Amino acid sequence: IVCAMATCHSLSLVDDELIGDPLDLKMFEFTGWSIAADNAMTLAPIRPRGHGKARDHIVASATPMIVKPPTVHFSQLRPGLLPEAPKVELAVLRSFDFVSNLRRMSVIVRRVQKVGGVASDDTGEGYAMANRWFECFVKGAPEVMRQICSPASLPADYDAQLRAYAHHGYRIIACAWKRINMSTSKVYKLKRDAVENDCSFLGFIVFENKLKATTPAVVRSLRRAKIRQAMCTGDNVLTGLSVSRECGLVNPSSRIFVPRFLSPDDDCPQSIMWEDVDGSGVRLDPLTLMPIPATAHQPRHEDSGLDPPLFAPGSTGQYELAVTGEVFQHYLDYASEQTLARLLVKAQIFARMSPDQKHFLVERLQGLGYTVGFCGDGANDCGALKAADVGISLSEAEASVAAPLTSHSTDLECVLTTIREGRAALVTSFSCFKYMALYSLIQFTSVSLLYSQVSNLGDFQFLYIDLAIIIPVAVFMGQAEAAQTVSLKGPTATLVSKKILTSLFGQIAIQAALQVALFRWTHLQPWYAPPATDIDEKGFRSYDNTVVFLLSAFQYLIVALVFNAGRPFRAPAWRNRPFILTLGALALFNIWLTLAPSPWIRDLLELMDLPPVARFVILAAAAVDLALTWGAEEVLLPSIARAWGRLMHAKARHHAR
Predict the structure, then answer these.
(1) Which residues are listed as membrane-spanning (predicted)?
(2) Do 364 and 384 contact (CB within 8 A), yes or no?
(3) pLDDT of residue 308
(4) Domain with 573 in it: what CATH number?
């Protein structure tokens, strides 16, 4: 079995570094063997004494991979035991790569030993064959390996041992071996089917699935956020179930039902039996996937009109499903859409899934309206990673080519990071959109009011608004950090949602109303004077212009602060220090501009010298604007959006009737 572990893999030596599947790498490192750095070695048959020419010949184009056993020093040998010379090594002549639907791989090897006088290089050394036969090593899933092994080689407790290892959460690979007695030329022409049959079972290679320290915390966080999680793996269903229970993916109090095909002598040979993995005797109806008593063995017809049967006495109503790839494919091919939908919604573990089945699973879940994220680290996950709405590769190997996102760490914390950052980015994008839209409409309101008095904003006023306020505020608004936790409810996913539209139109009304109110108040004051008609001499300097400009300068800052509110998807606004410092500096400058501006800045911005009462009224209006804008955004407008949604839902139900 050590020889199988040393040769039956897909590893390659690149720049003195082993490259390949991580599982194969761990298995090979465990053996202590090594791959020869120079694989282009000459092979020659050994001629037994008394024989003429050797019957075998080596195909000249063959470049076998040589694997060497660990070096044994004389000090490590037992007294009286001499080392064998020369040391026997293994040459991998042919390799049949792992195929997903076969779930196994195999190699053909020959034992060789280093000899002199057979190589054409300067060393004068080469490899000679140590015997006259070939050996085949096969490894793969235990369920399929028993089909290619001779029954006599299988131990009586094969299934019991497999089940015991799987129950402990171990990953299990079965190994087999056979001798091939034929010429080298025929060996190179052998088909895969001829190689992988009538083998002798060697044993199980058992890997421990060590749970990463962060996995349970990630699962708990996703569960608190009401984000459904499911395991999709190529491992044994019991292995997947054990790992799921360990990390908290499956509720410890839930019953888990696993499927199996009924034996051919049953009344329904194509049906499936769902059994409680803990052996309670409760089963599921294969069509409704509802629990039935242990005495009811016949599947219920979906269109019979009968009520779903109840649990057996003493059983619990909370249960989940663990599905195998074969059963999943069976439901895809033969079950109704309703039954398949029930399976997809209820199943928590999908085991022994092929790459195509993983791909189909993602597409079917999307068909039910789910937004699907998929994590994977192997070549078998490429199809699912590409089909998922969010594909995250935990490896920088093959899976990273298909996945939109690649994590530099191999733990699942990247899932939480992706959700948090994605939600924060979406909310920030909407906030920036609303801010830029509201900025335009605030300025539109200011210009419209001034146009009514044959006036407008001055050139430097436009310049101050656009360059000093809007550009830095908009730039720093986009630097908001994501929240540290995943919230229970997700953000709005469309710009034309009720929440976005209600917020936008509600804020437009508030900002316009305050500008109109202050504009009308100014006209009622005894110190008010209409704008001059001679624009060429005085420009747009007027009380209307000054009051509207100063209030709007505060409004641009207020709506930016309100739209940049953090929770629940972003960190608090004060964590965005450049944004807060920019708002603070601009707010202080606006206050100074309102209360006591220098003559030169007043002349530059074409501002009137307002009475003290007018200055304080503008500041009071800005404070009222802040209170109304914040209160409406946090309380009033969301309530209106929810009421609007309930009204639309009620109308839709009424029309559906």
Answers:
(1) 424-442, 462-480, 500-521, 547-566, 578-601, 613-632
(2) no
(3) 42
(4) 1.20.1110.10
User: What span, in angstroms and rounded, lies between the C-alpha atoms of 516 and 216?
Assistant: 57
Residues 79-106, buried b or exposed e (16+ Cβ, 10 A)?
Answer: eeeeeeeeeebbbbbbbbebeeebbbbb
75-118 pLDDT, tens digit per residue, is 444 454 444 445 678 888 889 988 878 889 999 998 887 765 54
Same domain, 31 and 163: yes
Full residue range of the structural domain in which residue 109 is found: 2-73+83-208
From 176, 208, 240, give the residue that closes a domain. Answer: 208
Query: In the numeric block, which tokens belong to residue 345?
Result: 């919604």
Q: Looking at 100-242, which runs of residues are DSSP E strands?
A: 104-116, 125-129, 134-140, 170-180, 200-208, 231-232
- Tell me: the pLDDT tens digits for 533-588? 765 555 688 999 999 999 999 999 999 999 988 788 999 888 899 999 999 999 99
Model pLDDT, residue 168: 83
Q: Answer yes or no: is 604 within a domain.
A: yes
Q: Supply the pLDDT for residue 557.
A: 96
3-class secondary-structure state, position 376: strand
Percent of the chain at pLDDT above 70? 84
Tokens found for residue 536:
């060429």
CA-to-CA dists, residue 502 to 251, 489, 496, 514, 626, angstroms: 40, 19, 10, 18, 18
Tokens of 296: 């009811």
Q: Are 478 and 432 in contact (CB under 8 A)?
A: yes
Question: In which residue are the tokens 């192997």 written?
Answer: 378
For 404-417, the pLDDT digits (tens) are: 888 888 888 999 99
Best CA proximity match to 435, nearest among 556, 587, 549, 548: 556
CA distances to 100, 152, 355, 459, 529 from 388, in Å: 20, 45, 13, 51, 66
